[in-house]
Amino acid sequence: MDCKFLKHGLAISYDGIVKPCCEWTHDNTYAATNHYSQVDLGRWHQILPLTQAVDSLAQGHWPDSCGNCARIEKQNRQDSARGGAASAYADYADDDITLEIRPGNVCNFACQTCWPEASTRVAQFHHQAKLVDINSLNTQSIDNFDFLLPIKHRVKDVILLGGEPFYDKNCLKFLAWAGHNLTANITMFTNGSHVDWEWVDNYPGKITMVFSIDAVGRPAEYIRFGTVWPDVHANFVCAQQHAKIQLRVNITASVYNYNYIHDVIDMLLPNWPTVVTFGTPRLKYLLESVVPTAQRSSTIAKLTQSVEKIQNAEIESGQKANAINALSSIVHNLQTQAWDNEEYHRLCDFITRMDQVKKISVADYCEDLHQLLIKQPVEIF
């Protein structure tokens, strides 16, 4: 095995730490010597942790820092970070770089499965709910990008994360800087609420937009709180039709939307995007085991129906396999995992807290999820 990111990836995370990709995990010792202001970006891929990881993969062993990709690929899925890089960066020369950068974390949404470091609005609500101390979060904004000038000629692809790219002021500064200094392909992850179409038209390189869509209609407005669905859908359609944009979609599959993923699939099937990926939260109370067994059959039926539709659709074979494997994995977990009483009540507490500070009610948006919460399980444990 090998991984393009270990030789070509340069990801600057929310705390300013340089990693080969966003999925790479590390300890404090690594962090102490890999802040972007401390390292020589031109020679960074020669550091020992990366060369050791390259050797481990070459011998067929997953490095500890690559556990997230290992978990996804054990499900026979090809939409891991490593799997995506293998095809996306197959033609890279030795010195080519894919830059992943998060200039800021200001976002106009507070998605239920997001985390405080990734969104200022999530951080504010979690702080109000007494889940985190907002002053303890280690996030750093970048407003000057000239530190990238020594390697700008090597940057072939950019992955832009936020915050929201067309909303966060530092992301906007980066886009302006890129317009003057780069011709690289830019991939940006967006909630779809804001798009600067003039920038899209003027940027000299190729643009890929990854729309994060977990549901449609009213459930979308709850799960990705801040969504005005008609606005997001209108931007989605414009991106789908724009000649300069390659459209992708990422679906974060969680207990919030197991009953609503089928609506997203139905929306995508007539004109399937180039790539559709399925993310998974890392918190156990957002996963399959919190669904009471008595309430799983209808969810399984919806997901199974989506699998059947995908099987019969005209979709590129690799994309078809990834989607089927992702949904089938959820079905399998719902069929086999025992109900987790502790995590279920943790979910109930989380939703109650979020509804209180956001001044909304799950019952007004997501009836299936509401029923999961009000019908207390009668299971023996």
Describe this protein with a few key phrases.
alpha/beta, single chain, two-stranded antiparallel sheet, 381 residues
What report would you give on this structure?
The protein is α/β, with parallel strands linked by helices and 381 residues long. It has helices at residues 4-8, 28-32, 48-58, 67-73, 81-88, 120-128, 169-181, 197-202, 217-223, 229-241, 261-268, 296-311, 317-336, 341-358, 367-374, and strands at residues 9-12, 18-19, 97-101, 110-111, 155-160, 185-190, 207-212, 224-225, 245-252, 275-279. The strands form 2 sheets. It has an 8-stranded mixed β-sheet. A two-stranded antiparallel sheet has the order 4-8. The relative contact order is 0.09.
Q: Give a count of the beta strands, DSSP E runs of length 2 or more.
A: 10
Strand content: 5-15%
Level of helix content? 40-55%
Shape: globular
Average pLDDT for all residues:
94
- Helices, by number, come to 15
Ends distance: 42 Å
Rg for CA atoms = 21 Å
Largest sheet: 8 strands, mixed
Adjacency order of strands in the biggest sheet = 2-1-3-5-6-7-9-10
Strand and helix map with partners:
Elements: H1 4-8, E1 9-12, E2 18-19, H2 28-32, H3 48-58, H4 67-73, H5 81-88, E3 97-101, E4 110-111, H6 120-128, E5 155-160, H7 169-181, E6 185-190, H8 197-202, E7 207-212, H9 217-223, E8 224-225, H10 229-241, E9 245-252, H11 261-268, E10 275-279, H12 296-311, H13 317-336, H14 341-358, H15 367-374
Parallel strand pairs: 1-3, 3-5, 5-6, 6-7, 7-9, 9-10
Antiparallel strand pairs: 1-2, 4-8
Helix pairs in contact: 11-12, 12-13
